[in-house]
Amino acid sequence: MNNITILYFSTWSFGGVYHMQPKCCILKTKIPYQKIHPTSSTMLAPDMVDGLLSGSHCAIAGVSIKGLFALLVLTLLLPPGAMTSSKPITCHKTCLCASNIVSCSKMNLTGIPMALPRYTAVLDLSFNQISKLKAEWTPVKLSKLHSLLLSHNGLTFLSSEAFLYVTWLRYLDLSSNGLKILEEFIFEPLEHLEVLLLYNNHISQIDRTAFSGLNSLQKLYLSQNQVKRFPLELVKERNRLEKLTLLDVSTNRVKLLPIQELQVLPAWIKNGLYFHNNPLPCSCELYSMLARWHLQELSSATDFRDDHTCLLPGTQKEKVLTLELNKVHLNCSAVTIIAEEAYLEQVLNLGCDTRQRDVLKSWVLPGNVQVTSGNQSARVLSDGSLQIGPLTLEDSGVYTCYAVGDSLNETLYVTVEVHNTTQAGGHEGMKTAYTTLVGCLASAVMVLIYLYLTPCRCFCCSSQGLDKRALGGSLHSSTVSVSPTHEDTGPEGGGGGGGAFDKPPFNRHVAFPDPKGLIEQNGRLSPCGEEEEEWQEEDRGKQGQRRKSDVESLSSVCSDTPIVV
Fold it and tell me: What pLDDT does 447 receive?
């Protein structure tokens, strides 16, 4: 037999005053304890109660023993802590309510209160002991809820369906908890979310799709975690979140930065890209990137200048300031802003890379000339950049971009230097140089051929009946070509006697005259003088064909026309 003790109160009225007296009774039952334990799978039928309670020594006036027992069973079947962790919300007791704001902060809650008002817009559950955010934490859709605060709760688990009924959230604070992993598509239902706070957790693994679907996200805080990989997919072109203007991955365990990809990002993204206090290795590439951001006065570089550190190579891993690498440690080259260089007839686009997105941009040309729609050589494009060209030397100077925004106004100066040459001028110069070189080589080859490869058949001179002395006299001759084009068909050559079709031998001589005894003729020196008379005396009596050939050779020397070989 098991005894069940029941405590109840008896009330009565006497003289208009109500009195209450506590009473106690003991129910004797044969029901084993495990039969009514919450974990038991055996349930008692109502008609079994009378028989099992027949040995009871307790009688309560006006109260059915069967009803008392049913109430007792229901009480035992409730899960432990259900009456304290998920109480129906009661303003001024469980939480504080101010219009559409429900604040349950610091109430020592282990679960989210049930029956939240549908008009709730801000729900503050911070500084409690809520360790899990389950799918059924709210059974109804809270379409007006735009801010949910769950910081400082020791939260370690997020259900993949935890945000199905709060899709209109714009602000979600999960900071200062115990989260370790962000699973795939965990935040996908929150398409209207603008700010997500995840700093000061233990996050070491982030799935590449964890932030998919957050098309309205503007600020993401991931600092003070254990992240080892920089989430480039969030800011890289074609994959990035279009409205993201702030990404904080500072104070993590990132050891490698995609420097080349970060350098080409727009200034309005780099302005909100925080990566200080990470164990990055020192390099001149890292210094160059950070120095340029500092010259552009980007907030991510100027606000935390002393927190941008890196580790020097070596076993000790000494930590130094990144912006001081050019002075002592790595001797990196100093970074300066270089002016735009252009060439004549070139079309140039000048960007107005501002720290703020969606600002109104206007340009002023050198000489303080405002760019208007009627300007033929300069016009403002749809993205705010300035297109100028075809360029002339007068286009050199300082161009000014004025950017006007809601919270920030900027002025950017771009210096343009136009060179006095076309962009293809250098290539044409190279072509001219190559042409000159080829010409020089060809000339050298021709000279070598002239000196060493010219055929000289002096043995033909004796057969011609010429005296070597006549050829070696005052005229120093050089035979260019002595090869006859046809065989001599004259009588001396054994051919058929000197007919009309007989061709004389084809001989040409180039003579270099001796300057002694030259006779001036029409302002030029003529080799024709005594040598001509001597030549005629020696050849007198020779055949007309031979004399004709010699005369032709001499006439070629004495002639004013070029020698034909």
Answer: 87
**Which residues fall within 8 angstroms of residue 107, CB to CB, at 6 or more apart?**
94, 95, 128
Specify the pTM. Answer: 0.57
- CA pair distance 33, 285, nearest whole angstrom: 74
- The per-residue pLDDT for 372 is 83
List Cα–Cα distances, 39 to 34, 36, 73, 274, 404, in angstroms.
8, 8, 12, 52, 68
Q: Which residues contact 62 (CB under 8 A, 6 or more apart)?
A: none
Q: Please state whether beta strands 508-513 and 409-422 pair in parallel, antiparallel, or not at all (unpaired).
A: unpaired
DSSP-derived secondary structure for 18-70: EEEEEEEEEEEE---GGGSSTT------GGGHHHHTTT-----TT--HHHHHH
Angle subtended by helix axes 544-558 and 530-538, to nearest 10: 170
Q: Which residue has the tokens 């008609």?
A: 47
Distance, CA of 553 to CA of 543 (rounded, Å): 16
Q: How would you classify the pairing of strands 340-344 and 409-422?
A: parallel
Query: CA distances (Å), 28 to each of 127, 263, 358, in order?
Result: 46, 82, 80
Q: Which amino acid is at 7?
A: L
Q: Is the dihedral of CA 514, 516, 519, 524 positive or negative?
A: positive
- pLDDT score for 60: 43
Nearest residue to 152 via CA among 220, 204, 104, 87: 104
CA distances (Å), origin 201, targets 95, 173, 249, 551, 562? 26, 12, 12, 113, 98
Q: Are 172 and 193 in contact (CB under 8 A)?
A: yes
DSSP string, 146-174: -EEE--SS---EE-TTTTTT-TT-SEEE-
pLDDT of 329: 72
Over the stretch 317-370, which tens digit does the pLDDT of each residue have?
A: 889 999 888 777 777 877 777 678 888 888 888 888 888 888 888 888 888 888
pLDDT-wise least confident of 60-64, 150-154, 405-409, 529-533: 60-64
Average pLDDT for the chain: 74
- The per-residue pLDDT for range 55-79, each reduced to its tens digit, is 444 444 444 555 544 544 444 444 4
Contact call for residues 58 and 6 (beta carbons, < 8 A): yes
CA distances from 330 to 279, 284, 287, 306, 322 (A): 17, 7, 10, 18, 10
Q: Is the pLDDT of residue 550 over 80?
A: no
Q: Are 402 and 364 in contact (CB under 8 A)?
A: yes
pLDDT in tens, 451-464: 887 665 555 555 44
Question: How far apart are the two ends of the chain, measured CA to CA in Å?
Answer: 145
Distance, in Å, from the CA atom of 191 to the CA atom of 125, rounded to the nearest integer, reads: 22
